[in-house]
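Memo to structure team: turn this sequence into C-alpha cells by end of day. - J.P.
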Amino acid sequence: MRAYRTVRQSDLPEPEELNWRLAATCRIVSPALFFHPTNERGPKRQKRIHEAKKICAQCPVQRPCRDYALAVREPFGIWGGMSEEDRDRILGRGRGRADNTTERSA
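Reply from structure team:
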C-alpha cells in the first residue's frame, strides 16, 4: 500500500499558477487514458501508459504539468509525461519500478 503525504493548503499553487491547464492537450482526450483502472497490469497497462505519454510529449504545457504533479506529490495518473512510478522514483518514495510490472505481494 502506498503511503500518502498530507498536502497543506500553503503547499498548493495559487489559482493563477494553474492556468496552464487550459492549454493542456489531455483536455480533449478521455481521462481513462491517463488514470489506470483497478488492477490493470502487464502489457495492457504499459500500452496505456505509452499512449498517454505520447499525448504528453506533444503538449505545450508538459513542463508546468509535470512540475505541478511533483509539487503536490500527485499519487495517481500520468502527469507531464510521467507515470506514478516515474514520480515515485524522483520523489524518493521507493515504489517506482523500472519495468512497471505487477506489484509483489508482501
